[in-house]
Amino acid sequence: MSKQRLNNLFFFLGLAAVVVMLFTFDVSFVELWEHICHAGYWLIPIVGVWIIIYGINALSWREIILSEIRRYGGTEVRVSFLRIYRLTITGYALNYATPVGGLGGEPYRILELSKNISGQQAASSVILYAMMHFFAHFWFWFSSIFIYLGLAAVGDLPINTAIATVLGIIILFCLIFFWIFSRGYRKGLVVSTLHLLGRIPGLKGWSSRLLEKRGETFRNIDQQIASLYAKDKRAFYRSLILEYLSRVVQSSEVLFMLLLFGIDCGGGFTGITLTYLHAILIVSFTTLFANLIGFLPMQLGVQEGGFVLSIAALGLSAALGIFVSIICRVREIIWIIIGILLMKIKD
Question: Which of 92, 104, 199, 330 is the most exposed place for a label (fewest CB within 10 A)?
Fold first, then answer.
């Protein structure tokens, strides 16, 4: 199948997913419109802040792409930032719209990026960025534990045995995955993942055939993955910091919604800062919950539950949690539509 036909296939799959989502919304269109009207002009910064977030994501991915180009002796930037920015938005749109996250966005990014650089470079840069995106999630969750403990220490949030146990489990969970990622960045991840999949009943034959047919390509990609950390640590850490920063900026959309409800912890610089820290905790807990059950399109129902639970855990009303989840869902649909339409822009 030609690259243009694959592009069209991704485009129509994305459109179909958007239609399905619109007709399977958790609330009626009347209730949905009421929530949108309640958001009012605040919907502009809630949607608009993602221009900045996707820009930071694109800068993070660009660090990896440039590292790949330098590693192979490339002296010219053969991929413009605007193209990387467009592929970032479109890739996330496909990830949101399709089951099992990366089954839509990552293949599309590889397909499009291979028009500018080699197929192996495109594949390794996309895999490396996906790893970095997920790796930054763990650092965000890990650091959020200490934000919670800091706020609990000053009496702003509750702490008891049950809460301490949950926080301890999350810390352990993050530490285990830090170790897994460290092995992946030192030795690569593709071949070992395929070997692991081969142990699942029914997948052994598929895994063996794939390794036999494309084993050399996968080993080369693993070498490229390992080379980023071993030979270009500056690019590695710049990419990681940018990805982490995008999570912090993402929390501002929840901050806007808290301010909309008049929740500002007393106002002023101190009050807004404290509210922002609450927003970070809400996003952190919700994304952790959603990623644990990431096989549903847009994590239907999971994200909503995560927002309600995380907001309730901070002593706020469940009604606020429902409002936040619905407006975030509206923002996602808007950006999915934008991302799908961007697939038809030539650059």
Answer: 199
Q: What are phi and psi of 167, to 5 degrees?
A: -65, -40
Q: Are 88 and 112 in contact (CB under 8 A)?
A: no
Cα 11 to Cα 324: distance, rounded to the nearest angstrom: 29
Are the C-beta atoms of residues 122 and 113 closer than 8 Å to each other? yes
**pLDDT level of residue 309 (50, 70, 90 thresholds):** low
Query: What pTM value is reported for the model?
Result: 0.83
